[in-house]
Amino acid sequence: MPFDRELDVRGLRCPLPILRAKKALADMSSGQVLHILATDPASLQDFTAFARQTGNTLLENRQDGDLFEFLVQRK
Amino acid sequence: MRQQLSAFFASRWGIILAGVVIGLLAALLPKLGNPPNMGVCVACFERDIAGAFGLHRAAVVQYLRPEIPAFVLGSLAAALLFGEFRARAGSAPLVRFFLGVFAMIGALVFLGCPWRAILRLAGGDWNAIIGIAGLTLGVGIGGAFIKQGFSLGRSRETFKIAGGLMPALMVGILLLALAQPAFILISEKGPGSLHAPILISLAVGLLIGFLAQRTRFCTMGAIRDFVLIRDTHLLLGLLAMIVTAFLANLALGQFKPGFEAQAIAHSSHLWNFLGMVLAGLCFALAGGCPGRQLFLTGEGDTDSGVFVLGMIVGAGFAHNWLLAAAPDKLAEGVLTVGGPGLNGQVAVGIGLVFCLVLGFAMRERFE
Fold it and tell me: What's domain A5-73's superfamily in CATH?
């Protein structure tokens, strides 16, 4: 799936991935998609809650070994 | 089955269950022999371990507490069972060591970590309200730094054997606790002489470690996540722990409301507050309360292991250099208010300056 911007938060722990995603999305336009790369095991739980709370859409999440990938669309 | 369990532990009911279990067991342990309002206190128990190793000379707080290694090993078991053991390293270990040292000094000026603050509150020790207010301010300041870009940097994957080093050390501590060789010191009086049967402490610690690893239970994280992103998930666990411990204390006759002459506590309000500001700030900058640091250690996070070692070394300095507070004393109806001496007050000041300098200096620019 295409995306507009990529955010690499591999090696960072909660809550830094969420805070950086929040900041990145704030600089994007409505409808644009952010691709996030993370390794924190709690990422899936955190980004699901983050999308629910902020109204942004979690379009896709994938796990490949230790790597988590998320596509979040700005509301 | 494993996926269903994972989903449950990640849910609101999962974190509430963790809070209920921790609150209940922490209230029960004093009934079984642990010190009053100290069913589980990570800082106090690490201080006791430091004493048992002879790292400090305070004869009343020396005992190899099995709960601490059991927390790590319970977390290790959960991480292995659910495929979450990941050996990692390299996120500012030396800075984390010093944060651990100052976190312990702050906690010993208050006389307890966030876990004990909650248990003291649930036991009617109103001084804990002041400590928790300080903790909230400290975490809030740390959260503000994090929001401004403070970071200890990225960790990276390392050799599995490195991630297993701290759990191996904890197995060693447990074996020494069971064998009790002559070179391990044990208090004959005071809090260090009060302890539940070793196998019960071990079982409680393993269960708490397992549950906390699965649910990410963290007392500091509860406050931080609410302050930073208005997320109440971890806060539910914290509230469940307070309510359960309070009800259990009521049922067990352990609820004794008041400010003065509380068990192993002092009513020097300013230093209860400032001690916990320092501890909260250190925990926030290091990314987890002392319990969470132990659980992360069990998951293979060697940086958290360095923080734990910093706390143990900090306990040595805190007692050798008379930085830790003295509890209130009540003798023949006369109350002597405790608190830290000048050394402890200066140490808190140095710790706060250290954290503020870090908070301003270690800010990353990121897009």
Answer: TusA-like domain (3.30.110.40)
End-to-end CA distance of chain B: 40
Give which of B28, B33, B69, B63 is closest to B48, Cα–Cα. Answer: B63
Would the CB atoms of B224 and A15 count as touching at under 8 Å?
yes
- ipTM greater than 0.90: no
How far, in Å, CA of B49 to CA of B106, rounded?
A: 18
| Beta carbons of B151 and A23 less than 8 Å apart | no
Are B51 and B187 in contact by the 8 Å Cβ rule? The answer is: yes
Q: What pTM value is reported for the model?
A: 0.94
Under a CB-based contact definition with an 8 Å cutoff, are residues B109 and B326 in contact? no
Q: Report residue B235 as tokens.
A: 């806060």
Q: Where are the domains positioned within chain B?
A: 2-361
Whether A15 is catalytic is no
* Block mean pLDDT (10 aa), chain A, length 75: 92 90 93 95 86 90 91 94
Task: Please give the Cα distance from B222 to B224 (Å, whole number).
Answer: 6
